[in-house]
Amino acid sequence: MKQDIENKLIGKNTRPTSMRILVYDFLSSQEAAMSLSEIENHFDHADRTTIYRTLKTFEEKGIVHGIQENATTKYKLCHDGCNENTHKDWHLHFYCKICQQTTCKEDISFPENMRTDFRIDEIRLFAKGICENCLESLQ
Ligand SMILES: [Zn+2]
Ligand SMILES: [Zn+2]
Ligand SMILES: [Zn+2]
């Protein structure tokens, strides 16, 4: 597992420090996107600045993408297609009003190979509603 993460980080031109490995491991174990404070709470003893810097590096290197949600940003791991030049996370992000979790809905996405005369640097698709788990418990 640790070796896997090291290889992923190296593959994205990022030196696998122990903090980076820990943060990557935590994010990969989560179904939902995590905010800085949620990540912080998970690592009681880690320094806030270190975690913040880790996330910023990850974002620059195409390892995580940030999802803007009101005043906070949540982070979710990217796919192999993202790198330090481009992010290709052109899928829907879904916020559940009941469990307050934000998830990536990869099957609903913008076509990546779309040809345009203009250049797209960023696409944000964001929806709010009730997720499949919460819908089920409502019945
Ligand atoms: Zn990405
Ligand atoms: Zn929910
Ligand atoms: Zn996403």
Automatic annotation (TrEMBL):
Pfam families: FUR. Signal peptide: none annotated. InterPro entries: FUR, WH-like_DNA-bd_sf, WH_DNA-bd_sf. It comes from the Bacteria. This is Fur family ferric uptake transcriptional regulator. It comes from Chryseobacterium camelliae.
